[in-house]
Amino acid sequence: MGKHAFLLLSPPENPGRIANPLEYASQLDDAGHEVVVWFDGGATFWFEDLSSRPEPALDAYRTARERGLIAGVCNHCATHKGVVGAVEDEGFEITGEDHQPAVDDLVEGGFKLHVV
Fold first, then answer.
1. What pLDDT sits at residue 25?
2. Is 96 left (phi over 0), alpha (psi -120 to 50) or beta?
3. Matching Gene3D superfamilies, A to Z (predicted)?
């Protein structure tokens, strides 16, 4: 089986750019692949007013989260975009201002990167 890392960069104003990769991540997980998802860049705004997101995107997020596919949120982006509180309300820890994930570590670990 393969290893896949989804790096979500798109802002939530285009919910398909969040929902579709989360659906793909779940499909790969169903097939037995190792999958991680990171919210980075504009995608960190996803956590602001989360309950207002459209249902298909919110459902895809909840499924990925329940499966443990979401590895984390970029500390640097969440801090500088002012969404730390919203991110932490969802149970993700922000521990400083380092940019995450370390894509070199993901690639060295055998993950194929999917940047959306």
1. 98
2. left
3. DsrEFH-like
